[in-house]
Design brief:
This protein is α+β, with helices and mostly antiparallel strands. It has a domain of about 70 residues. Strands 1, 2, 3, 4 and 5 form a 5-stranded mixed beta sheet that branches. It is globular and about 55 Å long. This is Transposase.
């Protein structure tokens, strides 16, 4: 229950920051794993709610246990998108790596391009996933 209450509190703070046109100075980032292969042919993949009936026409494709892939990080805002940063294989992404190899280049290269008017005031929102 505490997790749900924490999430609600975080979303309320986000809503307050976004109202009244302040969304224009908002930057959202996320990272994701992208996998190669694992499906040779057509795939039918879908998301259903828990307890919802899954029809026979919808198949779930399992990801290979050791599928080849890579991790990427990017950010978007109403002013454009950041450069996509690829995280090298077998990299331990801890706070030091994330700060020095992802956030610093973002602040040095992308923020001046997205906010060229000299006032680099923005609200940066990232997911709160643990590493």
């Amino acid at each position: 229950m505490a997790k749900i209450q924490k999430r609600r509190a975080m979303h309320w703070k986000l809503y307050i920051k976004l109202k009244c046109g302040k969304w224009g100075d908002f930057v959202i980032s996320d990272e994701a794993m992208f996998y190669f292969g694992g499906s040779y042919g057509r795939r039918r993949v879908g998301y259903v709610r828990m307890g919802e009936n899954v029809g026979d026409k919808l198949k779930f494709v399992k990801r290979d246990a050791f599928a080849r892939g890579f991790m990427a990080w990017a950010a978007v805002s109403s002013r454009g998108k950041s450069e996509i940063r690829i995280i090298p294989k077998r990299t331990q992404v801890n706070s030091e790596y994330y700060f020095n190899k992802v956030l610093k280049p973002f602040i040095q290269k992308d923020v001046p391009r997205l906010f060229p008017e000299g006032k680099h005031v923005m609200t940066f929102h990232q997911d709160s996933a643990s590493s």
